Amino acid sequence: xxxxxxxxxxxxxxxxxxxxxxxxxxxxxxxxxxxxxxxxxxxxxxxxxxxxxxxxxxxxxxxxxxxxxxxxxxxxxxxxxxxxxxxxxxxxxxxxxxxxxxxxxxxxxxxxxxxxxxxxxxxxxxxxxxxxxxxxxxxxxxxxxxxxxxxxxxxxxxxxxxxxxxxxxxxxxxxxxxxxxxxxxxxxxxxxxxxxxxxxxxxxxxxxxxxxxxxxxxxxxxxxxxxxxxxxxxxxxxxxxxxxxxxxxxxxxxxxxxxxxxxxxxxxxxxxxxxxxxxxxxxxxxxxxxxxxxxxxxxxxxxxxxxxxxxxxxxxxxxxxxxxxxxxxxxxxxxxxxxxxxxxxxxxxxxxxxxxxxxxxxxxxxxxxxxxxxxxxxxxxxxxxxxxxxxxxxxxxxxxxxxxxxxxxxxxxxxxxxxxxxxxxxxxxxxxxxxxxxxxxxxxxxxxxxxxxxxxxxxxxxxxxxxxxxxxxxxx
Length: 476
Known about the structure:
By secondary structure, the chain is of the alpha+beta class. It has helices at residues 90-98, 100-105, 107-113, 175-183, 202-208, 248-263, 276-288, 296-310, 363-378, 384-387, 452-467, 469-475, and strands at residues 6-9, 19-25, 32-33, 38-43, 48-52, 57-62, 69-71, 75-80, 121-122, 125-126, 139-140, 146-147, 266-274, 316-322, 328-334, 340-342, 344-346, 349-351, 354-355, 392-395, 415-419, 423-429, 432-446. The chain has three domains: 6-147, CATH 2.40.50.100; 164-208, Dihydrolipoamide Transferase (Irregular); 250-475, Chloramphenicol acetyltransferase-like domain (Chloramphenicol Acetyltransferase). It contains twelve helices and 23 strands. Helix 8 crosses helix 9, helix 8 (296-310) runs antiparallel to helix 11 (452-467) and helix 11 (452-467) crosses helix 12 (469-475). The N and C termini lie far apart (69 Å). Keywords: Acyltransferase, Lipoyl, Transferase. Pfam families: 2-oxoacid_dh, Biotin_lipoyl, E3_binding. InterPro entries: 2-oxoacid_DH_actylTfrase (IPR001078), 2-oxoacid_DH_E2_comp (IPR050743), Biotin_lipoyl (IPR000089), CAT-like_dom_sf (IPR023213), E3-bd_dom_sf (IPR036625), PSBD (IPR004167), Single_hybrid_motif (IPR011053).
């Protein structure tokens, strides 16, 4: 070979994530790719991510199949120089793959080397320059001595003309895009490409076929695997209907909830609240500004951040650390600020995006950020930081038509406030029975960080704010 084969390792996709599920390949062996071209869709425990290639060239090897779970730092794709013969590459691929452990061990060096080629950044990967990245890692000869490797030529400026039929088709690189267009009867010459140099992307085909919603899983990878469907279960004697692998979001939720239940000695307090005044205040604001009035959750979020300032024990984290003598010590870590998480149900499971520095925002600003985060979470595009940085969680399970819940705290936080549905109930007002809009607030808290008095004080503060929103907001 005249130039070195490049092996791209699955990058660090987020804080503490060590693996990802390969959902779909966006390229095939033999395809010519550009720097920053999306090559695969992967699903982590937090979100769906399109992985861009830091290299340009010809796809030589795809290291994995759709549905397979890959470890971070292991080979994802091998890219050969343009013009190289793929038939003669197996030995080179094996040689490069064997270098993967060394590359993983020096991840920081790897990231530094990758900083010069692209404009996309993927949680510590990607680059910022004009496509001039070169790998210059020394290679050992048969005697074990290090020998210099000639830097690979710059292939970042691949010509898109090879993917066009002049005067007929726009640029199409991904075989998935071509297949999607073919399956839906979409003529590529009628599709305007939104990518660089008119490149037709998947979203362009989706728009052409009227698919405004991005697929979260390929059709080729069934969500339910049934290798033993039809067999009899030994314990129950019933026929097994299906077996569903626990992975992705569901796997992360299961692990987090199990850890929360096993480690946190939680207690729960609750109270019924007359929300009539809050609903009346919001109705009045909506009359004045039909499109700009904050939602009820934003007002409650504002009351929660104010309550956490008064009762900061609930905005902490309980950790076990090693002391100077090598033994264990326990600490309660307090934060200078509030990242308010809120539960959002999506097609891919329950996620908890968080509004960072929520204590600095008013109700309108909180409403805007809650709506934005809800949208990106449902699209599967929330970043790991948006999904893993909360310090307290607000859960509006009233939207599911229930009054209360014995919630499981979102580990490693120490408390969660739940809001039930708002319904008409008989209520005593000034000694008279009346029909009022009533909801139930439920607070689950870690009894290690505070006692019931603190939890009850916080809950009562939020309840009073809901019952007298005008007075509380005037003081904030």
